[in-house]
Amino acid sequence: MNIFDLIGPIMVGPSSSHTAGAARIGLVARTMLGEKPVKAEILLHGSFAATGKGHGTDRALVAGLLGMKPDDLRIPDSFRFAREEGLEFSFGEVKLDEAHPNSALLRLTGETGKTLEMIGASVGGGKIEVREINGLKLRFTAEYPTLIIQNHDNPGSIAWVSKLLADENVNIGTFQVTRSSRGKDAIMVIECDSRITDDLVEKIMQNPDIISAGKVNL
Amino acid sequence: MAIFESTRGLIEETEKSGLPIWEYVLKTSCEESNISEEQSWEMMGKTFDAMLESYRSYDQFQVSASGLVGGDAEKMRVARNSGDTICGSFIGSVIATALTVSECNACMHRIVAAPTAGSCGVLPAVLLPYAHVKDLSRDDLIKALYVASGFGAVIAQRASISGAEAGCQAEIGSASAMAAAALVYLHGGDLRMMENSVAMALKNMMGLVCDPVAGLVEVPCVKRNVAGAMNALASAEMALAGIESRIPADEVIDTMKVVGSMLPPSLRETGEGGIAASPTAHRLFPDGPKI
Ligand code: SF4
After folding, report:
1. What is the 3 state secondary structure string of B209-224?
2. Minimal Cα–Cα distance from B240 to chain A, Å?
3. Which of A200, A217, B203, B221 is deepest in the core (most CB within 10 A)?
């Protein structure tokens, strides 16, 4: 129990779930993309779709995509900043299966053409969970430095990754492995105690069984 | 973590430690979240400054997204300053401060969720006017925030601080209980008095539903912050007078959880029941929560 969840967070109103959480979903998506987004298709689900406008959910999501934190005073004017920074965005609604009522699906294109599709849920008090990345179901909060690795489900992948982490002296907090079915692609979500470097991500990618590797350090 | 699991535990462990309660909460929470005491103190200081700033950022001419909120804090301030009020100057300030901070939240200013954004006006509403009349320092108020967070943590762990989960009793009710404990602390009351103030504040808000018009944190939320602040004052005052809650705080918190789970979804932040379903709310927002 963090006492700064009781007195805090410091945030731009009016709603911790619909405003602060939305900004954080945008921010996490930007970091996952790993570069400045130039195009964003944002689809709102459930209560985000129903009451999002009045809560500034739309402006908060765009603010996050621009790199703003939930306490950034520019959030109410984020649409203007998006125009200035060349971020083209659109909003729509979507009905997602088995999603949290406060969810958004973001489809991003970055300045070098990288793409990302992410579903984020605002789970209360400004906290969020990433629930899906590029169609793969997973779950993490992005409160800790997190590595997200997609790999072919062959023996040795986990050992490969954990050895590299050990070599770099990165301590593992939690380690989840999921896969759609036996022998299919698997996904590892690793929460760490210290920052994850670009260099480490590159090293991880050198194993042919690794399909993709991404990181969030917030 | 036993101490944040019950008010009883919090109080007994604080007594054993021989520390003032704010310091006990500070130390224990640091151990748990792995930050230093200096970092924690600095963060709470920043949080207090942000709270004060949210109050100062008020603009009487601003209105919220729906157009329903704005300008009321100024009306209250004018009335208070006229000297012609029922409750006098101190209570006038409490009401005006609650409205000020809550209106700021509805108008997308930066606020401190305490414990939530919807209930962000309650703590500043009692702390700032009280600090003004008693000439308290910033440090005193930071300590009071630690006290509030200690009791808030118990409520969050045993029950909930989310309107979507347990109704407004969990938001304005919890804020009110936290504010009551902070006031008892600032006024020099003992640990039992804090516990009693929490119990009384929560009992008085038992069953309060979450029914925001059009699903927005505006009506009835802004004015409910006033009710939460007034209830905190009354509960703290009773506790300081030696009045005890006949039901212990932990049992009241547990009851709040049970009552919250009995509320239908229409009364838990969906904007479909309660005040949100009144004829005027329907007339203003014929499409329901969507504006
Ligand atoms: S009515 Fe609901 S949204 Fe408004 S303050 Fe209460 S709990 Fe929060």
Report:
1. CECCHHHCCCCCHHHH
2. 24
3. B221
Domains in chain A, number: 2
The overall average pLDDT reported for chain A is 92
Range of the domain at A38: 3-140
Taking all residues of chain B, what is their mean pLDDT, rounded to a whole number?
Answer: 95
If one counts every other C-beta atom within 10 angstroms of the C-beta of residue B114, the result is 29
Query: Are A75 and A13 within one domain?
Result: yes
- Give percent of chain B above pLDDT 90: 92
A7 and chain B in contact, CB less than 8 A: yes
Residue B247 has pLDDT above 90, yes or no: yes
Distance from CA of B138 to the nearest CA of A (A): 16
User: Comparing B98 with B290, which gets the higher pLDDT?
Assistant: B98
Residue B69: CA atoms inside 13 Å, Cβ hemisphere, count?
29
CA A52 – CA A73 distance, rounded (Å): 19
Together in a domain, A133 and A151 = no
What chain B holds in terms of domains, given with CATH numbers, is: 7-284 (1.10.4100)
Query: Is residue B1 pLDDT above 60, yes or no?
Result: no
Same domain, A10 and A107: yes
* pLDDT tier at A179, thresholds 50, 70, 90: confident
Ligand 1, atom 2: nearest CA belongs to which residue? B210
User: In angstroms, what is the span from residue B171 Cα to ligand 1's centroid?
Assistant: 6
Tell me whether B117 touches chain A (CB under 8 Å): yes
Please answer whether residues B246 and B150 qualify as being in contact, where contact means their C-beta atoms are separated by less than 8 angstroms: no
d(CA A214, CA B254): 42
Protein residue closest via CA to atom 4 of ligand 1: B221
The residue among A100, A122, A140 that closes a domain is A140
Single out the residue in A119, A140, A161 at which a domain terminates: A140
Whether the CB of A173 is below 8 Å from some CB of chain B: the reply is no
CB pairs under 8 A between A and B: 142
